[in-house]
Design brief:
By secondary structure, the protein is of the alpha/beta class. Helix content is 26%, strand content 26%. The chain is built from eight helices and 17 strands. Strand 4, helix 2 (51-54) and strand 5 (61-66) form a beta-alpha-beta unit.
Protein backbone atom coordinates (compact mmCIF):
# COMPACT_ATOMS: atom_id res chain seq x y z
CA UNK A 1 0.00 0.00 0.00
CA UNK A 2 1.06 3.60 -0.68
CA UNK A 3 3.78 2.47 -3.04
CA UNK A 4 5.04 4.11 -6.25
CA UNK A 5 3.48 2.74 -9.46
CA UNK A 6 4.68 3.02 -13.06
CA UNK A 7 2.48 2.13 -16.03
CA UNK A 8 4.71 0.43 -18.62
CA UNK A 9 3.72 1.09 -22.19
CA UNK A 10 4.52 -1.55 -24.82
CA UNK A 11 4.56 -1.97 -28.58
CA UNK A 12 3.95 -5.67 -29.20
CA UNK A 13 6.28 -7.19 -26.62
CA UNK A 14 8.76 -4.31 -26.45
CA UNK A 15 8.62 -2.03 -23.43
CA UNK A 16 8.79 1.67 -24.31
CA UNK A 17 11.97 3.47 -23.38
CA UNK A 18 10.03 6.20 -21.60
CA UNK A 19 8.63 3.55 -19.24
CA UNK A 20 12.13 2.36 -18.37
CA UNK A 21 13.15 5.96 -17.74
CA UNK A 22 10.20 6.34 -15.37
CA UNK A 23 11.04 3.08 -13.61
CA UNK A 24 14.50 4.48 -12.91
CA UNK A 25 13.02 7.68 -11.48
CA UNK A 26 10.29 5.77 -9.68
CA UNK A 27 12.90 3.64 -7.93
CA UNK A 28 14.63 6.77 -6.63
CA UNK A 29 11.34 8.22 -5.41
CA UNK A 30 10.40 4.93 -3.72
CA UNK A 31 13.76 4.81 -1.94
CA UNK A 32 13.27 8.36 -0.67
CA UNK A 33 9.82 7.46 0.64
CA UNK A 34 10.95 4.09 1.97
CA UNK A 35 8.27 2.26 -0.01
CA UNK A 36 8.25 -0.23 -2.87
CA UNK A 37 8.27 0.35 -6.63
CA UNK A 38 5.50 -1.48 -8.44
CA UNK A 39 4.85 -1.64 -12.19
CA UNK A 40 1.91 -2.64 -14.36
CA UNK A 41 1.92 -3.75 -17.99
CA UNK A 42 -0.95 -4.90 -20.18
CA UNK A 43 -0.84 -6.55 -23.60
CA UNK A 44 -1.37 -9.67 -25.68
CA UNK A 45 0.89 -12.73 -25.43
CA UNK A 46 3.41 -10.86 -23.28
CA UNK A 47 3.80 -13.33 -20.43
CA UNK A 48 7.47 -14.29 -20.18
CA UNK A 49 8.47 -11.65 -22.75
CA UNK A 50 8.37 -8.34 -20.88
CA UNK A 51 9.52 -9.20 -17.37
CA UNK A 52 13.24 -8.96 -18.19
CA UNK A 53 12.67 -5.50 -19.68
CA UNK A 54 11.06 -4.18 -16.49
CA UNK A 55 12.35 -5.97 -13.37
CA UNK A 56 16.04 -4.94 -13.73
CA UNK A 57 15.08 -1.31 -13.13
CA UNK A 58 14.39 -1.96 -9.47
CA UNK A 59 10.79 -3.21 -9.53
CA UNK A 60 9.60 -4.93 -6.36
CA UNK A 61 6.32 -6.17 -7.82
CA UNK A 62 5.17 -6.39 -11.43
CA UNK A 63 1.53 -6.86 -12.46
CA UNK A 64 1.30 -8.46 -15.92
CA UNK A 65 -2.15 -8.37 -17.54
CA UNK A 66 -2.23 -10.67 -20.56
CA UNK A 67 -5.31 -11.09 -22.76
CA UNK A 68 -6.03 -11.26 -26.52
CA UNK A 69 -7.95 -7.96 -26.49
CA UNK A 70 -5.33 -5.83 -24.70
CA UNK A 71 -3.21 -5.07 -27.77
CA UNK A 72 -3.33 -2.85 -29.73
CA UNK A 73 -4.14 -0.29 -27.03
CA UNK A 74 -7.71 0.87 -26.63
CA UNK A 75 -8.85 3.26 -23.92
CA UNK A 76 -11.55 1.40 -22.02
CA UNK A 77 -9.86 -1.87 -20.94
CA UNK A 78 -6.58 -0.22 -19.96
CA UNK A 79 -8.49 2.40 -17.98
CA UNK A 80 -10.44 -0.34 -16.18
CA UNK A 81 -7.22 -2.15 -15.32
CA UNK A 82 -5.52 0.87 -13.78
CA UNK A 83 -8.58 2.24 -12.01
CA UNK A 84 -9.44 -1.08 -10.36
CA UNK A 85 -5.82 -1.96 -9.63
CA UNK A 86 -5.19 1.44 -8.03
CA UNK A 87 -8.36 1.12 -5.94
CA UNK A 88 -7.00 -2.21 -4.73
CA UNK A 89 -3.36 -1.25 -4.21
CA UNK A 90 -3.81 2.42 -3.21
CA UNK A 91 -0.52 3.83 -4.53
CA UNK A 92 0.59 7.27 -3.41
CA UNK A 93 2.31 8.05 -6.74
CA UNK A 94 1.50 6.87 -10.28
CA UNK A 95 3.64 7.75 -13.30
CA UNK A 96 3.28 7.18 -17.03
CA UNK A 97 4.79 8.49 -20.24
CA UNK A 98 3.42 11.62 -21.89
CA UNK A 99 2.93 9.67 -25.11
CA UNK A 100 -0.16 9.37 -27.30
CA UNK A 101 -1.26 6.52 -25.03
CA UNK A 102 -0.29 8.22 -21.78
CA UNK A 103 -2.08 11.42 -22.73
CA UNK A 104 -5.22 9.41 -23.39
CA UNK A 105 -4.99 7.04 -20.43
CA UNK A 106 -3.73 9.36 -17.69
CA UNK A 107 -6.67 11.80 -17.66
CA UNK A 108 -9.19 8.95 -17.81
CA UNK A 109 -7.66 7.25 -14.77
CA UNK A 110 -7.17 10.43 -12.75
CA UNK A 111 -10.72 11.56 -13.51
CA UNK A 112 -12.17 8.21 -12.41
CA UNK A 113 -10.15 8.34 -9.18
CA UNK A 114 -10.64 12.12 -8.71
CA UNK A 115 -6.92 12.36 -8.10
CA UNK A 116 -5.73 15.08 -10.48
CA UNK A 117 -2.79 14.84 -12.86
CA UNK A 118 0.12 17.04 -13.93
CA UNK A 119 1.11 16.57 -17.58
CA UNK A 120 4.51 16.92 -19.25
CA UNK A 121 6.62 17.20 -16.10
CA UNK A 122 10.31 17.95 -16.54
CA UNK A 123 11.29 17.12 -12.95
CA UNK A 124 9.88 14.98 -10.14
CA UNK A 125 11.06 15.44 -6.57
CA UNK A 126 9.96 14.66 -3.02
CA UNK A 127 9.45 17.56 -0.62
CA UNK A 128 7.28 19.17 2.04
CA UNK A 129 4.54 21.78 1.65
CA UNK A 130 2.73 24.19 3.95
CA UNK A 131 -0.70 25.51 3.08
CA UNK A 132 -0.42 29.23 3.82
CA UNK A 133 -4.20 29.60 4.24
CA UNK A 134 -4.83 26.79 6.71
CA UNK A 135 -1.35 26.39 8.14
CA UNK A 136 -1.51 22.65 7.45
CA UNK A 137 1.89 21.08 6.86
CA UNK A 138 2.33 18.16 4.46
CA UNK A 139 5.39 15.96 4.27
CA UNK A 140 6.84 13.86 1.46
CA UNK A 141 4.67 15.15 -1.35
CA UNK A 142 5.50 14.67 -5.01
CA UNK A 143 6.78 17.92 -6.49
CA UNK A 144 5.50 17.88 -10.07
CA UNK A 145 7.64 20.43 -11.90
CA UNK A 146 6.92 21.76 -15.39
CA UNK A 147 7.00 24.98 -17.43
CA UNK A 148 3.72 26.90 -17.31
CA UNK A 149 2.04 29.99 -18.79
CA UNK A 150 3.53 29.42 -22.21
CA UNK A 151 6.92 28.58 -20.77
CA UNK A 152 7.36 31.91 -19.00
CA UNK A 153 7.68 30.33 -15.55
CA UNK A 154 8.55 26.96 -14.04
CA UNK A 155 5.70 25.77 -11.82
CA UNK A 156 5.95 23.32 -8.93
CA UNK A 157 2.61 21.57 -8.45
CA UNK A 158 1.59 19.53 -5.42
CA UNK A 159 -1.45 17.41 -4.66
CA UNK A 160 -1.77 17.30 -0.87
CA UNK A 161 -5.13 15.58 -0.36
CA UNK A 162 -5.89 13.16 -3.20
CA UNK A 163 -4.19 9.93 -4.18
CA UNK A 164 -2.53 8.78 -6.23
CA UNK A 165 -0.41 11.79 -7.13
CA UNK A 166 -0.30 11.33 -10.89
CA UNK A 167 2.11 12.76 -13.45
CA UNK A 168 3.13 12.16 -17.03
CA UNK A 169 6.67 12.68 -18.30
CA UNK A 170 7.86 12.86 -21.89
CA UNK A 171 10.41 10.47 -23.31
CA UNK A 172 14.00 11.54 -22.80
CA UNK A 173 13.38 13.81 -19.81
CA UNK A 174 14.57 11.18 -17.31
CA UNK A 175 17.59 8.98 -17.91
CA UNK A 176 17.20 5.24 -17.56
CA UNK A 177 19.66 3.07 -15.62
CA UNK A 178 19.57 -0.50 -14.39
CA UNK A 179 19.14 -0.71 -10.62
CA UNK A 180 22.14 -2.06 -8.71
CA UNK A 181 20.43 -2.40 -5.35
CA UNK A 182 18.25 -5.19 -4.06
CA UNK A 183 14.50 -5.50 -4.72
CA UNK A 184 11.92 -8.29 -4.53
CA UNK A 185 11.23 -8.72 -8.28
CA UNK A 186 7.89 -10.44 -7.66
CA UNK A 187 5.69 -11.03 -10.71
CA UNK A 188 1.93 -11.67 -10.60
CA UNK A 189 -0.47 -12.45 -13.43
CA UNK A 190 -3.95 -11.22 -12.43
CA UNK A 191 -7.11 -12.53 -14.06
CA UNK A 192 -8.04 -9.82 -16.54
CA UNK A 193 -11.78 -10.49 -16.28
CA UNK A 194 -11.70 -9.50 -12.61
CA UNK A 195 -10.52 -6.01 -13.55
CA UNK A 196 -12.11 -5.32 -16.94
CA UNK A 197 -15.80 -5.35 -17.78
CA UNK A 198 -16.94 -7.15 -20.97
CA UNK A 199 -18.30 -3.84 -22.29
CA UNK A 200 -14.77 -2.38 -22.28
CA UNK A 201 -13.85 -4.64 -25.20
CA UNK A 202 -16.56 -3.32 -27.51
CA UNK A 203 -13.99 -1.41 -29.60
CA UNK A 204 -11.83 -3.51 -31.94
CA UNK A 205 -8.77 -2.21 -33.78
CA UNK A 206 -8.99 -3.31 -37.41
CA UNK A 207 -5.53 -2.15 -38.41
CA UNK A 208 -2.51 -1.16 -36.33
CA UNK A 209 0.41 0.52 -38.05
CA UNK A 210 3.55 2.06 -36.56
CA UNK A 211 5.90 4.07 -38.75
CA UNK A 212 9.62 3.88 -38.11
CA UNK A 213 11.30 7.07 -36.93
CA UNK A 214 12.81 9.18 -39.70
CA UNK A 215 15.80 10.16 -37.54
CA UNK A 216 17.44 9.45 -34.21
CA UNK A 217 17.33 12.93 -32.71
CA UNK A 218 16.83 11.72 -29.15
CA UNK A 219 19.83 9.39 -29.31
CA UNK A 220 22.17 11.68 -31.26
CA UNK A 221 25.56 12.49 -29.71
CA UNK A 222 25.70 15.80 -31.55
CA UNK A 223 22.67 18.00 -32.19
CA UNK A 224 22.68 21.11 -34.37
CA UNK A 225 19.53 23.07 -33.58
CA UNK A 226 18.10 26.13 -35.27
CA UNK A 227 15.68 28.78 -34.14
CA UNK A 228 13.65 31.56 -35.69
CA UNK A 229 16.93 33.41 -36.20
CA UNK A 230 17.78 31.04 -39.06
CA UNK A 231 15.42 33.19 -41.11
CA UNK A 232 14.00 30.62 -43.51
CA UNK A 233 13.71 26.99 -44.51
CA UNK A 234 16.68 27.55 -46.81
CA UNK A 235 18.63 28.79 -43.82
CA UNK A 236 18.15 25.39 -42.21
CA UNK A 237 19.95 23.81 -45.16
CA UNK A 238 23.17 25.11 -43.61
CA UNK A 239 22.40 23.26 -40.42
CA UNK A 240 21.83 20.00 -42.27
CA UNK A 241 25.19 20.51 -43.97
CA UNK A 242 26.87 21.14 -40.60
CA UNK A 243 25.13 18.15 -39.00
CA UNK A 244 26.24 15.92 -41.87
CA UNK A 245 29.88 16.94 -41.39
CA UNK A 246 29.61 16.35 -37.63
CA UNK A 247 27.65 13.08 -38.01
CA UNK A 248 24.89 14.64 -35.92
CA UNK A 249 21.17 15.38 -36.18
CA UNK A 250 19.25 18.59 -36.79
CA UNK A 251 16.74 19.94 -34.30
CA UNK A 252 14.63 23.09 -34.10
CA UNK A 253 12.92 25.38 -31.66
CA UNK A 254 9.15 25.72 -31.61
CA UNK A 255 9.38 29.18 -33.19
CA UNK A 256 11.28 27.75 -36.16
CA UNK A 257 8.80 24.89 -36.55
CA UNK A 258 5.80 27.22 -36.31
CA UNK A 259 7.38 29.41 -39.00
CA UNK A 260 7.66 26.39 -41.30
CA UNK A 261 11.47 26.33 -41.31
CA UNK A 262 11.68 22.70 -40.12
CA UNK A 263 9.47 19.63 -39.66
CA UNK A 264 7.59 19.24 -36.38
CA UNK A 265 9.20 15.91 -35.55
CA UNK A 266 12.52 17.74 -35.10
CA UNK A 267 11.16 20.15 -32.50
CA UNK A 268 13.13 20.22 -29.25
CA UNK A 269 11.63 21.43 -26.00
CA UNK A 270 8.67 21.07 -23.67
CA UNK A 271 6.28 20.32 -26.54
CA UNK A 272 8.83 18.42 -28.62
CA UNK A 273 11.72 16.01 -28.08
CA UNK A 274 14.06 16.04 -25.09
CA UNK A 275 17.71 15.41 -25.97
CA UNK A 276 20.88 14.67 -24.00
CA UNK A 277 23.71 14.99 -26.55
CA UNK A 278 27.39 15.38 -25.80
CA UNK A 279 27.40 18.57 -27.90
CA UNK A 280 24.44 20.87 -28.58
CA UNK A 281 24.97 23.69 -31.08
CA UNK A 282 22.16 26.26 -30.85
CA UNK A 283 21.99 28.51 -33.90
CA UNK A 284 19.74 31.56 -33.83
CA UNK A 285 17.83 30.28 -30.79
CA UNK A 286 16.77 32.81 -28.16
CA UNK A 287 16.37 30.18 -25.45
CA UNK A 288 12.90 30.39 -23.94
CA UNK A 289 12.14 28.17 -20.93
CA UNK A 290 10.16 25.64 -22.92
CA UNK A 291 13.08 25.08 -25.31
CA UNK A 292 15.71 24.93 -22.58
CA UNK A 293 13.64 22.25 -20.84
CA UNK A 294 14.35 19.95 -23.77
CA UNK A 295 18.14 20.40 -24.01
CA UNK A 296 19.53 21.77 -20.74
CA UNK A 297 21.16 18.47 -19.78
CA UNK A 298 23.45 18.48 -22.84
CA UNK A 299 27.08 17.95 -21.86
CA UNK A 300 28.39 20.93 -23.87
CA UNK A 301 26.19 23.77 -25.15
CA UNK A 302 27.47 26.09 -27.88
CA UNK A 303 25.38 29.13 -28.74
CA UNK A 304 25.68 30.94 -32.07
CA UNK A 305 23.70 34.17 -31.74
CA UNK A 306 23.95 37.76 -32.88
CA UNK A 307 22.37 38.90 -29.60
CA UNK A 308 24.86 38.71 -26.72
CA UNK A 309 21.95 39.03 -24.26
CA UNK A 310 20.01 36.01 -25.59
CA UNK A 311 18.74 33.90 -22.64
CA UNK A 312 20.35 30.73 -24.02
CA UNK A 313 23.79 32.32 -23.62
CA UNK A 314 23.36 32.12 -19.85
CA UNK A 315 23.42 28.32 -19.90
CA UNK A 316 25.85 27.93 -22.82
CA UNK A 317 29.39 26.72 -22.21
CA UNK A 318 30.60 28.61 -25.27
CA UNK A 319 29.04 31.64 -26.98
CA UNK A 320 29.87 32.71 -30.53
CA UNK A 321 28.55 36.24 -31.15
CA UNK A 322 27.71 36.70 -34.79
CA UNK A 323 25.07 36.02 -37.39
CA UNK A 324 24.39 32.44 -38.40
CA UNK A 325 25.02 33.43 -42.03
CA UNK A 326 28.65 34.21 -41.28
CA UNK A 327 29.40 31.73 -38.49
CA UNK A 328 27.81 28.46 -39.68
CA UNK A 329 29.58 28.37 -43.11
CA UNK A 330 32.89 28.89 -41.31
CA UNK A 331 32.12 25.99 -38.97
CA UNK A 332 31.28 23.76 -41.94
CA UNK A 333 34.48 24.74 -43.75
CA UNK A 334 36.62 24.17 -40.65
CA UNK A 335 35.17 20.76 -39.79
CA UNK A 336 35.43 19.60 -43.40
CA UNK A 337 39.10 20.50 -43.45
CA UNK A 338 39.81 18.80 -40.14
CA UNK A 339 37.73 15.64 -40.63
CA UNK A 340 39.90 14.24 -43.39
Amino acid sequence: MNNVFVYCEIEGTTVAEVSQELLTKGRKLANQLNVELHAVVAGTDIKGKVEDQILPYGVDKLFVFDAPELFPYTSAPHTDILVNLFKQEKPQIALMGATVIGRDLGPRVSSSLTSGLTADCTQLEIGDHKDVKTGTEYQNLLYQIRPAFGGNIVATIVNPDHRPQMATVRSGVMQKALYEGSCRKEVVYPEVSQYVSPEAFVVHVLEHRVEAAKHNLKGAKIVVAGGYGMGSKEGFDMLFDLAKVLHGEVGASRAAVDAGFCDHDRQIGQTGVTVHPKVYIACGISGQIQHIAGMQDSDIIISVNSDPEAPINKIADYVICGTVEEVVPKLIKYYKQNSK
